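Hi F.,

I've been meaning to write this up properly since the lab meeting, where we talked about keeping a consistent format for the predictions we share between groups. The idea is simple: the sequence comes first, exactly as it goes in, then the structure tokens exactly as they come out, then a line or two of notes. No screenshots and no reformatting. I'm using this chain as the first example so we have something concrete to point to.
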Amino acid sequence: MRVLRRKDIVEIIKRRIANGEYAMRGIPSERELAEDVGVARMTARKALQILVDEGILIRTPEGGRLELAPDAKATKHCVGLLVPTLTSPDMANWESELRRAASKLDIMVRVIYYASWDDLALRDAMDNLDGLFLIPRADLPPPWLARKFRRHPCPMVCLGMDLTELELPSLVVFQPVFIRQLLDHLLELGHTHIDCVNTQGNNPVTIQRMEQWQFWRELHGFKGDLINEKLKNLSPARSARKLIHEKIERGALQATAIFCTTLPAARGTIRALVDHGLTPGKDVSVCTVDGEHQADLATPSITCLERGDTVAYLQSLLRWMISGQDWQGSLLMEISNIKLIPGESTGPAPSPASTT
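Output, unedited:
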């Protein structure tokens, strides 16, 4: 493997500067750079000096630490996507859609992972980027951080959850009311005993989905059990598989259809049914809210709501972020073009003689 030369290191740093890589972390010291690219410290020092001589870097009067020269800073705007360290396909979809929207406006996107609400990455992102899109954790931000979000000049938008109570603009794809489309679909298929499975934990999104199921069930006078448990040391999908397995083993599964709050719960539920020789869509129907662009690839394909196109909304939000203007209008933005996508996992309710 060829050893990097000074000019190679200079080009690496220039590319990183152009891509906004140092927007948050700052220019590395010669020791940090040497360790990063695997060269001698002297080689790193000479490469950094070349950038100083070219006017790209400057040394601060206090301590001589290297910084970007004002004229050398990235000309593109750079926004951040704050993502919890425990990621999911839903978060990957948000990143993909945000990058599509940003590319049309020549705006860079930086993904920043945070492990908790105390993570200093949140503060660094707010202090150094032109705007932030927040995918929140299951637990709400503590009051001190919520105040910081409101008062900080960095514009911020919440994705996927309604945090307007914290005065944050929020873009929500699946408002709870859309869940009735799924339940009405099951009703049209003749189902009157519909269980609800949630293994994702209790957060504002899953709680609202369970409440909609409960409200709809009571409205129609139908039967149904709520299975709301996240098993320790098991993923949401494996939790659902185990819980449904145990219910079948006890002879307690009376439902002809199961509404799952998330795709992982639906996948685990379907696996448990198949394990016991039951056919999803024939013996027991299964549906979920967000197919996460994957439900059609499952076997069987899973009935779900189609995620609406968010790119136009995200472009509008990006324009606001770089405009420097105050937010105008309602804080809550809702995707309106939500459609039901029937899959193989739902079918007519079985006759009483053939139910489990």
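Notes:
The domain at 176-306+340-354 is CATH 3.40.50.2300 (Rossmann fold).
The mean pLDDT is 90.

If this format works for you, I'll send the rest the same way.

G.
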